[in-house]
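chain below, 434 aa
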Amino acid sequence: MKIQNLKPFVGILLLLSILYSCNNDSDIDEALITIPTLPYQAEGFVKIENGSGGFFANLESGDRFSRDHDKIGDVNGDGVIDLVIGARSDDDGGVDTGAVYILFMNSDGTVQNNQKISMLEGGFTETLNVGNFFGYGVAGIGDYDLDGIPDIAVSSPVPPNNSLYIIHLNVDGTVKDYVKNENIIANGLTAIGDINGDHRVDLVACNPGSDVGGTNRGAIDILFLNEASQIMYTNTVTINSTQGGFGVGLEDGDQFGGREVAMLGDIDNDGTKELAVGAFMSDGGKGAIWILSLNSTTFNVESKVKITEGTNGFTDELVTDLNPNGTFGGQFGHAMCAAGDIDGDGINELITGANQQNEGWAYVLYLNADKTVKSFTRINNTDGGFNLTLDSEERFSRSISYVGDLRGDGSIAINIGGGAGGTGTLYTLFFRPQ
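prediction:
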């Protein structure tokens, strides 16, 4: 007899061997739950930090490289997606004035070369104040000035120069010119695509420290820009505990908005788009995510679902311990991105994290159409299949962004930040959907 496929027989033999090795029912239960089942194939990662992964720069301890990051598109025309990386505490021109790096990538996830943009480099002529944190939020926004080169948005959230810069790039990653939009606080920044149909990418500015409605309840601003790269302030949609239709649910200290949001698209097929927003200090620091269904005309909240420990399908236990930086809890929902349909069920996945949970745990949340969690996968030193070796207080998942098919082979690249306590580290993880 010719056996066409040995995999089912191997699986049965493995299961029988596990059962045989167990002496009682509790042993059987423990053995069975350790069998990994992942809806993707983990295909390794590239670690990018000063002197590693092809990245060489004069970073100093505490520069916060990879505090935020995003894909830009192909800036130099070599056919490979390039990245923008924030280093909000860089000291060019003054303490914590901030900087960003344009990374020109190889298709294997390593860095070909880079260009720094700061008060002293890259053709950026702006004067930043001490502690301005330029690069706290960064986003790729497509070709805003229609010159064939994709552009970036960068925030400097600290007054008196709390501004959003739309930077039009040259092919070498230097600044061609820029537009300064004042009176914007963005401790996180996310490009959410063109939701108002004007053929320009729209942005969400995250303001988790907003005191509207209560102390540190947080807020987000949905920003629309015109053809001159200027914010149309009168069109801005603000969502917080008193505006934008959010309604009840936020408490003092929740820090709604987090550091990034994620546009999931219309996952329930009812004509409204779903936007995931973190509130990373809610529930005693455990953290939470709100999935908001936005009206297709006003972009106000029509309905919402909260995801946190023990709520709406998320069953993992989140810590509430005191952290080394003086905060509390695992801070689930601090950062996130939409990851496409990894498990093949027609619904986009959400990648988020609890960056203060042990070494920092990332999560892939597989969602139901009703916006609840169907299942989840942890990614850390022991889970997720990537064989990471993270430091005990690395704060892995403190920033997350979607890159896409960087290698051109159908895999998905996701960037996850870590390296707290050093100069900063970026991990590019490669997923292959099953």
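The mean pLDDT is 92. The two ends are 30 Å apart (CA to CA).
thats it, cya
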